[in-house]
Amino acid sequence: MSQLPTTTIIGLEVHVQLKTATKLFCGCSTKFGSPPNTQVCPVCLGLPGALPVINEHAIELAIRAGLAINCDIPPLTKWDRKQYFYPDLPKGYQISQFDLPICADGCLEIADPADDDATRKIGITRAHLEEDAGKSMHDEAAGRADSRIDLNRCGTPLLEIVSEPDLRTAEEALAYLTKLKEIMTHLGVSDCEMQEGSLRVDANVNLHIDKHGERIATPIVEVKNMNSFRNVVAALHFEVDRQYAEWEETGNTIQTHGKRTFGWDDVKGVTYPQREKEESADYRYFPCPDLLPVRIPSERVEEIRASLGETPEETRERLQSQYGIKAYDADVIVSQGRGMVEYFDTVAMASGEGKRASSWIQQDVMRTLKEQGGDIESFGVAAEQLAQLLSKVSSGELTNDRARDVFKHLSENGGGIDEAIKALGIEAVDDSEMETLVKELLAANPKVVDDVKNGNQKAVGSLIGQARGKNPNANPQKVREIALRLIDQA
Question: 172, 166 in Cβ contact below 8 A?
């Protein structure tokens, strides 16, 4: 029997960790990777008598994010207690927002994956601030060891962005998440490092099945805490097939069965049931007695709006037109956030080498950042230094290889370019010295000479590695030019 016409209904809840140095209601660090339970205090541990204090920077970042996704910013927002118990939630409740969120009624326009010339407007119900819980670490493989709790994440500021159920395919969900992540990183709202838990996705999904003109809705399933976009896409595809098969077998509908929470097993590639889903009444929300409501003056909102600057789309177009780089290269730079865009702008403008700056940033800068685990704002090679280094390459003063040696030295040791050049023993090789070196190589490689005379100029390439072996400061271009001239004169 063929499958009946079916529409997939998807809504996403995206938890974005805000890029603050400290937690939402205390002064504990939000730094990732510290030893378990070393970034805690009486406030985030929920100890008696400890009172929360609002992180003003988190408020500002939430407003920035809300404006970028076209939300209204109400003049008043308040805090609520969301009651539930897990071992990694010491207070027994989470400070969140219920009926007066900081951002509401927004939308995000995405490219339609099914039509290159069309767009889809995805509604955003709300974006509210809340504190994160800790992390439970279970011995899920062997099942014999104890569960352990790391409370470092307790109190970490999250912005939960809740979409309307306007998405219809896993591919649309991917386009929405990709654009949302790009906006958050571009604005400096979050680093969105999914492997560090800075961005997590819950997907609400069910099916509308058309049976003889009657619309039948399957029970809603919320697939929780997916930590990669690949997992989101795979989980949605699997869940659509699973729900249809379950409906065929049981006939369960949204009228007969409540919402359920499922997990995603990335190894097996399946979703699996965890529990019946709690509704808002189960959480027994009530206003937090320890925190006053926050009034947000319209003047402050407009100040933040004016500071947003270019959108990612506008930045991509400008980088391509201003520096002549490819669309792909502009996309890579923009995807790294506004800090990387500013770094690139400085390097490209100061060196006058937009394409070379793009190449170095994508290869050397981003690779070094990944290895060192830092961010561009604290990177050891200042943009002005990299611009100076690229100018030396352009002028022929340094080869690409030697410039990369200098770059590596600067990123590891700091200091200035001249200091690095001296430390590495880099010296200019005069023309007479170069010519003597090339003559020696030609005498030792008669086959290269014969190949070039027979029309294969590329054969001189084998001399370049030999030249650098004898003198690391030898310029490859000069070696090539001198070798071809001497062979032609012979």
Answer: no
